Amino acid sequence: MGVGAQGKSTSFYWSLVLVLGIAMEAIALYYQYGLDYGPCVLCIHIRIYVLGFILLALVALATRGSKPMRMLTGLTGVGLAAGMAERSWKTFGVERGFIEGACDMDSGLPDWFALDQWFPTVFEPWEPCGYTPELLFGITMAEGLLAFSAAAILGSLWMLVRSLRS
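RE: above sequence
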């Protein structure tokens, strides 16, 4: 059975999400361990959303032939992107000073999902919120996360609409 244009674009999209998600996690860990910028609790929440996208991309790639699964992964992607955008907005607001009290050292994760205890190397907050490091060209990590979140919302909506149309 041949793969049509829909299947190729779906595979490309989810492969791109997978690669970008892994790259984002690697960059975050490089900043944490290579450059000694410890993550705050909001940064940890964003890492969890990125992990969610990585897992979703794997599921989407494995089930791309199923229309119900394309719809479910598209809808789940929209939810993950919206959650990541909210956390990114709070991170940006704390950094710029127009949101206060949005962060403490408690991860806020329930006992049944204690990633900070199970994988502290990746998901344990080290510092209180306040600033994010500069990435490139004067763009801070919070600004970059906002842009990525907006792109993730648009991409996820696009995939959801495509799944409803096919």
